[in-house]
Amino acid sequence: MQDDTRPWGPPWREDRRTGRFQRRRHIGVGAAVVAGVFQVAGVHDSAVYRPVTPLVYALLLAGPVALLFRWRFPEAVFAVAAAGSLGFATFAAPRWTMAVAPAIALFNLAKMGRGRAAVIGAAISYAAYLAICWVFADPLGIAPGARADVRSAVLLAVGFAVMIFLGGAAKARGEHVAEMMKVRAERARARQEQERRQASEERLRMARELHDVLGHHLSLINVQAGVGLHLMDNRPEQAREALTAIKTASAEALREVRAVLDVLRADDEAAPRQPAVGLSRLGDLTGDAGLPITTRVTGDERPLPAEVDRAAYRIVQEALTNVRKHAGEGATASIAIDYLPTALHLAVRNEGPPAAAADAPGEGTGIAGMRERAQTLGGSVEAGPVDGGFLVSVLLPTPGADAAPDAGPVFDHDEESRG
Predict the structure, then answer these.
(1) What is the per-residue pLDDT across 195-214, written as a single tens digit (0 to 9) for each?
(2) What is the number of other CB atoms lying within 10 angstroms of the CB of residue 180?
(3) Do the beta carbons of residue 83 and residue 99 sit within 8 Å?
(4) Which helix (H) or strand (E) holds 309?
(5) Among the listed residues 332, 331, 320, 328, the one whose alpha carbon sits nearest the alpha carbon of residue 282
(6) pLDDT score, position 46
(7) How much of the chain, in percent, has pLDDT values that exceed 70?
(8) Helices 236-262 & 150-231, crossing angle to 10 degrees?
(9) SS3 288
(10) Which CATH number is correct for 279-403, 3.40.50.300, 3.40.50.720, 3.30.565.10, 3.40.50.2300?
(11) Residue 3 has what pLDDT?
(12) What is the pTM of this model?
């Protein structure tokens, strides 16, 4: 897996080969700057028993500068930071500020899952500090004010232990977050795949049924029509029988085609009483919805292409159906219709608490069906929760709208669809 050291972008990324989420590795400029500021500022807050020369600042800045490479060389960075702080500690009074860089490096070691290295490194550096600044302080000529005491020794041990613990906890939390993100992404992919599969299966089923129905009856009609034409002059009575058979076959074909298409109609949708549906019948639809609905129309109303008009009506119908199914008591809905120059925008939104038995948004097939209908016309559907409700926004292109037959007003609606 390639290392990503860019200091920008989201904190988590997915490896395209393995599908696993991992945290991005950052350069860590902020941590280095903070450590450098604390350690250099501590010089003026501590008793230093030698002249403050550039060498002193070099010892203090060695650890912060090394932190820039802590993701690539964690063990080496901790060793450099600990050595720099230990060198400064041999001629300065003990202060916590001199150990900021080693503490960050130790935390990073544990966070990267190198707990064993963190414990060993902390133990070695702690023993070196006690040996130099306490046990062998006299032979080494350590100034009395720079020598370790019980308080500083205990605080250093506790600080190292806390850094190792926090690093391990951060590692566990990072792994948990990465796993949750992976599960979430897999669920989203599974939902998308299920929606595509359902749409494909439904289209295939309809195509098969229509093929069977139309193939049989149209073949019969074709044969009987040929017979009728052949017998029209010589045997008119037999030609009449052929025409009667054509009438019967065509009526049966229409009945079976309606039966196939009715499968796609919602259970509580009334059978059509008019030749075609469109936004001109929106008043009937909202009047029978069973909940308060407000409708707002903006833009210049114009005749729409028949397929756009019909699709807009069906999408609004499905949205209101889902409002009735999933919205709680006292819910209201609003429909916004916007006639754009080359498109129709619909927004259907509901207000109110969800019903207790409602499924979570996005887990059903209502939105998938609306999206499929819009995409067949080159449009799009966006749906999701908003403050206090749920919104479905639909955009339908209207090519050749000026030449279309007179249709009802175009509605730009946001569907309240949760199923």
Answers:
(1) 888 877 777 776 776 666 66
(2) 11
(3) no
(4) helix 306-326
(5) 320
(6) 72
(7) 74
(8) 170
(9) coil
(10) 3.30.565.10
(11) 41
(12) 0.46
